[in-house]
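Quick entry, no commentary yet.
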Amino acid sequence: MKQVLLSFSLILMANAAAADPTALAAINAERAAQNRVPLVYDAKLEAAARAHAEDMVRAGFFAHTGSDGSDIGQRLDRVGYRYCFGAENIAAGQRSLSEVMTSWMGSRGHRRNILHRKAEAVGLARAPGNTWVMVLAAPC
């Protein structure tokens, strides 16, 4: 059974974890502080995050549901990521990685996603206007 967790807050980011090792390090520092295994960067997860972030900016909305009615599971399917776990954090307005991580870690739903024991990989995107999306998942 696929599990999809949607966070209650939203955040999107343009610099990918692969392009910005600082992002992956910040995520994994939070996980290490709670005795969680580190996540690995995944380009497909970044692609899913980027597509949703850009969709929100282009269509002028902020939600976990895409302009076409898609959810995180459908967006993972679109990028060819075969998942058994998926979660999404979104945010808007934070001007830096530090600000968005502080916001997410201060939100119960976002924090739960970042620290989730089933998460194995992450992709992060930041779109214009400081719209952030983080996708966490585990392959099947």
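second:
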Amino acid sequence: MSTFLENQNWRYATKKFDATKKVSAEDLRFLKEAIRLAASSYGLQPYKVIFIETADLRAKLQPAAWGQSQIVDASHLIVFANMTNFGDKEIDEAIQNLTTTRGLPADALKGYGDFMKSKISPLPMEKRDAWTAKQTYLALGNLLNVPLN
């Protein structure tokens, strides 16, 4: 635990990256796993995370990031995007994925899926979109707290 606090005291916003250095494949796997394991409501992950390595694509995205040099100088750009209009279809897909990955019968989580639908789907779209944005921030927070050496 003390390492976490030490890392928090040390952290800073990187203003300039060394464009000749690349994040290792091992570190990328670690970062992706930290995102995958982030806490979220109902265990749903109503967001997409895109790792952009291609320099040309990062250069095209730079104007949308207020021209910041970090977009092109860093070896990777990680984009978090919350899903909008999240509802029954996405919950069904999440339940299907869960039953497949855990080897459960198709109807094993039907009650849980119905429960989530009863809580999420009736919300106005603006509230659902705000909820998915908050889930996205949970994953981003997990990524920001990853200790890499």
